[in-house]
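User: quick one, fold this
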Amino acid sequence: MSGLMREGHQGTGPGAITPDGCAVDVYRRLGVGNEPDVIEAAVPAGASLLELGCGAGRVTGPLIERGFAVTAVDESAEMLDAVRERVPGAETVRSPIELLELDRRFDVVMLASYLVHTAEHRTRQAFLETCRRHVRDDGCVLIQREGERWHLEVPREREDPGGCTVRIVSADPVGDGVNSVLAEYVFPDLRWTQTFRARPLSKEDFERYLGEAGLTVDAYLTDDGTWVRARPKSR
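Assistant:
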């Protein structure tokens, strides 16, 4: 295990498990999908980019290869070790997202991996405030959000480019609009699970929470609305 587990979160399987139930070795193995393409199309070439919750660097590496100056942030030392293994010399910062205080701002701040759906309102707002605090006034924030029926169309599965079957086994209500989600990662040789809490957000709620953090939607970047580009509000 890597630190104390958050309430309602747990993980099973070999290797280090982060406080939110992520297995580090799963994220070492998972492949990259279309995320780098979406990001590259949405921001200026060569932009400085702050990646919040970078995990094992699955997206970090491709972004650096495409010429972006990436600063990768995660609270897990083991995840950041994996980033540096994948991308020697990568700039990494160990910090919880909500407590991050860097003395600089970036062209782009990215909050991916559906982190905006964290169960606690105060944590989500702290995440978004971190985004606003670190983005240039003329920059943008890229946010990955869940699909409209993400919590309803269960069980479901997909094949990951890394050779893993990713299953969302269940999403069960636990009160206050929050669901407990069980995910399963099955490789030919090993299996991991993760249980975590997530809060579905309507489009209206999502945009309202952005506004409370000083951000406003500029564009929905994908047909399913899962990738969003936001801009800082005028001060």
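User: anything notable?
Assistant: The chain has a mean pLDDT of 95.
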